[in-house]
Amino acid sequence: MSSLSGLPRRIIKETEKLLQDPVPGISAVPHEDNARYFNVIIQGPDSSPYEGGTFKLELFLPDDYPMAPPKVRFLTKIFHPNIDRLGRICLDILKDKWSPALQIRTVLLSIQALLSAPNPDDPLNNEAADLWKKDERRAIETAREYIRLYASE
Amino acid sequence: MEADQQQQQQQQQAMERRVFKPFFCYSCQHTVHIQVPEVEESTYEPQCSECGSSFVEEVPISRLESVEESISPTTGNEWYGSNGNVEVISLGEDGEPIRFSFRLGGDVGNFIGSSTEDSEQVQENETYLTNNRSTGISDFLQSFFVPRGNMTRFQAPPPAPPLPVWRTPQESDSQIGEEITENHEQAQNFTQEEEQRRVRRRRIPPFVAAGPFFLDGNSSDVPGDFSTFMQQILGIYGNPADYVIGEQGFEAILARLMQEDSNRYGNPPASKEIVASLPVVHLSAEEAAHHSECSVCKEAFAENSEVVRLPCKHVFCKDCIYPWLERHNTCPSCRYELPTDDSEYEKRKFSQSSSTHG
Lengths: 153, 358
Fold this sequence. Notes:
Chain A has 153 residues and is of the alpha+beta class. Chain A has helices spanning 9-20, 104-116, 126-134, 136-150, and strands at residues 26-30, 37-43, 54-60, 71-74. Chain A has 4 helices and 4 strands; from the N terminus they run H-E-E-E-E-H-H-H. Chain A has a 4-stranded antiparallel beta sheet with strand order 1-2-3-4. In chain A, helix 3 packs across helix 4. In chain B, the strands form 3 sheets. In chain B, strands 4, 5, 6, 7 and 8 form a 5-stranded mixed beta sheet that branches. Chain B has a 3-stranded antiparallel beta sheet with strand order 2-1-3. Chain B has a 3-stranded antiparallel beta sheet with strand order 9-10-11. Chain B is of the alpha+beta class. Chain B has helices at 2-16, 61-65, 119-125, 133-142, 180-187, 192-200, 226-234, 247-258, 272-277, 285-291, 318-325, 343-357; strands at residues 18-25, 30-37, 56-58, 78-82, 85-91, 97-103, 127-128, 151-153, 280-282, 306-309, 315-317. The interface between A and B is medium-sized, with 30 and 26 residues. Chain A: Pfam families: UQ_con.
């Protein structure tokens, strides 16, 4: 665990808490070579279009964390109006609404909430957003199809 | 048989083992850490962990850690220099290093840690740029993207995986930031091999985000002189030759030029005057219990903890809140906004609040 030396206390504390007391439906495990890089798994929330899906994400704490937000990206392909083809997430707290009082836990909870409440009015993936607005039923079907193809375990 | 299998298994495991390596992403314009197979696979194409672009280039760790280490032909671009000499070593996609060097105009002093090993060769190939300081600097910056000096190829051992390439001399006349399609047209005159190489070569984006001192392409437009450059980038005032800047300093410049500015998003910094006037108080036992912990560092407050109190009554450790207010004017806990020194922002805020009330 030599990688922990030089790591800010706050990151160590957050990591310990995440491992000891994980958020239901979310796991975040630091990489053994890099304590600032987390492999994240989020379960699609119940009664959402993503129910049953297992989504992998990566989360990276930059040097100036918590003054700057963590960088988070979906690794699993997902059909969602606020997540683009590259897995980038449109979420205000990851950009202009970041606050150093937020933490890994709250960020991941927000992403989980985004899965429950897709917002086609603030799109990052136009194809998904357009379909969501035009034909929500078909959009949800497509999201499920993506889960069947890419996010099933 | 069993031993064979075991060996195979071990090999397989070695292949699957992944390590983090620093890469420079040309799309994001900054360094990212990417997981790559520990054992180099020629077919493996690393992708930026942030934007997914595969236009990334490994940052040689040897450069980051040790000055003495000699150039490894498999690690990509390397920058060297001393006494105003700068040498750049880059890899062609055939794995052969392309080496070129140039000299900075003016009295730059020891810009980078010296690498005496290669100094003879440096002198051989060195191109003396003009003594006009501002042109020297813009050429210096441009040279990271468009080699302009003499280039020599020399034999190198094993071929490396494909890497983003520097432009060849034929291209060095063209301006930085030019679209690859234009290059395509020009390329028709070249041999087929050259053509293929060009197709694979991608556009190297201009350094537009770097700051006001940089201009893409037209070096005659360079505003500001060398001392402005030193002030803006290094925070150095006076005669830059009075300062010795080691390799770390140079790395820092590159990092600073390349890192995306995290202050770009969000609210402007809090007014310096207001921040200086915020009350610094010592918590009573009761207050310490009430606030429990600093919401930035998550450390528990104790009786007599020295804290800064914002007008919204939230309290934070000094070391936690000052760096934040230097970036943004909001309370970390409730987003209460302190005044800023940004008059445009204040105007907008005022008109917004009056329109919502009206």
